[in-house]
Amino acid sequence: MSIEEHTGIITTHIDTGALAKEIARELARELAAHEAHKKTSPQRLPETSSQNGAKQFAILRSRIEELGMDYEYFARKLGIGKTSLSRRMTGKVQWQMEEMYKALDVLSLPYDLLPEYFPKDGGKKKQS
Question: In terms of Cα–Cα distance, which of 126, 123, 128 is closest to 61?
Protein backbone atom coordinates (compact mmCIF):
# COMPACT_ATOMS: atom_id res chain seq x y z
CA MET A 1 0.00 0.00 0.00
CA SER A 2 1.30 3.43 -0.88
CA ILE A 3 1.59 6.35 1.53
CA GLU A 4 -1.28 8.06 -0.31
CA GLU A 5 -3.52 5.03 0.27
CA HIS A 6 -2.62 4.90 3.98
CA THR A 7 -3.22 8.65 4.27
CA GLY A 8 -6.65 8.25 2.62
CA ILE A 9 -7.64 5.50 5.03
CA ILE A 10 -6.44 7.44 8.06
CA THR A 11 -8.15 10.63 6.87
CA THR A 12 -11.39 8.74 6.25
CA HIS A 13 -11.17 7.15 9.70
CA ILE A 14 -10.56 10.51 11.39
CA ASP A 15 -13.36 12.20 9.44
CA THR A 16 -15.77 9.37 10.29
CA GLY A 17 -14.84 9.60 13.98
CA ALA A 18 -15.34 13.36 14.00
CA LEU A 19 -18.70 12.97 12.26
CA ALA A 20 -19.81 10.34 14.77
CA LYS A 21 -18.85 12.61 17.66
CA GLU A 22 -20.75 15.54 16.12
CA ILE A 23 -23.83 13.37 15.61
CA ALA A 24 -23.60 12.16 19.21
CA ARG A 25 -23.32 15.76 20.48
CA GLU A 26 -26.34 16.81 18.38
CA LEU A 27 -28.40 13.87 19.67
CA ALA A 28 -27.42 14.71 23.25
CA ARG A 29 -28.49 18.35 22.74
CA GLU A 30 -31.80 17.26 21.23
CA LEU A 31 -32.45 14.79 24.04
CA ALA A 32 -31.66 17.43 26.67
CA ALA A 33 -34.03 19.88 24.96
CA HIS A 34 -36.73 17.21 24.82
CA GLU A 35 -36.30 16.33 28.50
CA ALA A 36 -36.41 20.02 29.48
CA HIS A 37 -39.56 20.53 27.43
CA LYS A 38 -41.18 17.45 28.98
CA LYS A 39 -40.60 18.86 32.46
CA THR A 40 -42.03 22.29 31.66
CA SER A 41 -45.09 21.37 29.60
CA PRO A 42 -46.24 17.78 29.85
CA GLN A 43 -48.84 17.12 27.17
CA ARG A 44 -50.39 13.81 26.43
CA LEU A 45 -51.97 12.64 23.24
CA PRO A 46 -55.71 13.30 23.02
CA GLU A 47 -57.91 10.69 24.63
CA THR A 48 -60.31 9.85 21.83
CA SER A 49 -62.40 6.73 21.92
CA SER A 50 -64.66 5.02 19.46
CA GLN A 51 -68.20 4.14 20.49
CA ASN A 52 -67.08 0.84 22.01
CA GLY A 53 -64.40 2.51 24.16
CA ALA A 54 -61.31 1.44 22.20
CA LYS A 55 -58.89 4.27 21.52
CA GLN A 56 -57.91 4.88 17.93
CA PHE A 57 -54.31 4.02 17.10
CA ALA A 58 -53.89 2.48 20.57
CA ILE A 59 -50.67 0.64 19.67
CA LEU A 60 -49.20 3.81 18.19
CA ARG A 61 -50.16 5.77 21.32
CA SER A 62 -48.60 3.12 23.54
CA ARG A 63 -45.29 3.24 21.66
CA ILE A 64 -45.16 7.05 21.79
CA GLU A 65 -45.76 6.97 25.55
CA GLU A 66 -43.30 4.09 26.02
CA LEU A 67 -40.57 6.27 24.49
CA GLY A 68 -41.51 9.17 26.77
CA MET A 69 -42.52 11.45 23.91
CA ASP A 70 -45.19 14.07 24.28
CA TYR A 71 -47.68 15.34 21.73
CA GLU A 72 -45.73 18.44 20.68
CA TYR A 73 -42.38 16.64 20.35
CA PHE A 74 -43.79 13.79 18.24
CA ALA A 75 -45.61 16.24 15.94
CA ARG A 76 -42.40 18.26 15.51
CA LYS A 77 -40.41 15.13 14.64
CA LEU A 78 -43.04 14.28 12.00
CA GLY A 79 -42.84 17.79 10.57
CA ILE A 80 -46.50 18.56 11.25
CA GLY A 81 -48.31 20.78 13.74
CA LYS A 82 -49.90 19.66 17.00
CA THR A 83 -53.38 20.18 15.59
CA SER A 84 -52.56 18.13 12.49
CA LEU A 85 -51.29 15.28 14.65
CA SER A 86 -54.37 15.45 16.85
CA ARG A 87 -56.67 15.26 13.83
CA ARG A 88 -54.81 12.19 12.59
CA MET A 89 -54.79 10.47 15.99
CA THR A 90 -58.55 11.03 16.36
CA GLY A 91 -59.30 9.76 12.85
CA LYS A 92 -60.64 13.10 11.59
CA VAL A 93 -57.90 13.24 8.93
CA GLN A 94 -56.25 10.26 7.25
CA TRP A 95 -52.53 9.72 7.66
CA GLN A 96 -50.46 10.16 4.49
CA MET A 97 -48.11 7.29 3.62
CA GLU A 98 -45.05 9.51 4.01
CA GLU A 99 -46.22 10.53 7.51
CA MET A 100 -46.74 6.91 8.55
CA TYR A 101 -43.27 5.88 7.43
CA LYS A 102 -41.75 8.95 9.13
CA ALA A 103 -43.60 8.02 12.34
CA LEU A 104 -42.15 4.51 12.20
CA ASP A 105 -38.68 6.02 11.75
CA VAL A 106 -39.18 8.38 14.71
CA LEU A 107 -40.42 5.47 16.84
CA SER A 108 -37.53 3.22 15.71
CA LEU A 109 -39.88 0.62 14.27
CA PRO A 110 -39.46 -1.53 11.14
CA TYR A 111 -41.68 -0.72 8.17
CA ASP A 112 -43.30 -4.16 8.18
CA LEU A 113 -45.18 -3.10 11.35
CA LEU A 114 -47.00 -0.32 9.48
CA PRO A 115 -50.36 -2.22 9.34
CA GLU A 116 -50.17 -2.90 13.08
CA TYR A 117 -49.47 0.72 14.05
CA PHE A 118 -51.67 2.29 11.37
CA PRO A 119 -54.66 -0.02 10.86
CA LYS A 120 -57.03 0.97 8.08
CA ASP A 121 -59.80 2.03 10.46
CA GLY A 122 -57.52 3.39 13.18
CA GLY A 123 -58.01 0.24 15.22
CA LYS A 124 -61.74 0.69 15.80
CA LYS A 125 -63.67 -2.52 16.18
CA LYS A 126 -66.80 -2.86 14.07
CA GLN A 127 -70.11 -2.71 15.95
CA SER A 128 -71.87 -6.11 15.89
Answer: 123
**Where does 43-128 sit in CATH, by number?**
1.10.260.40
Strands (E), 1-128: none
What are the φ and ψ backbone dihedral angles of 31, each rounded to 5 degrees? -65, -45
Buried b (16+ CB within 10 A) or exposed e, 110-127: eeeebeebbeeebbbeee
Domain boundaries, the chain: 1-40, 43-128
pLDDT digits (tens, 9 = 90+) for 82-107: 999 999 999 899 999 999 999 999 99
Q: What is the DSSP letter of 55?
A: B
Segment 8-14 shows an average pLDDT of 59
Question: Which among 126, 108, 98, 115 is positioned nearest to 59, based on CA atoms?
Answer: 115
pLDDT class for 23, splitting at 50, 70, 90? confident
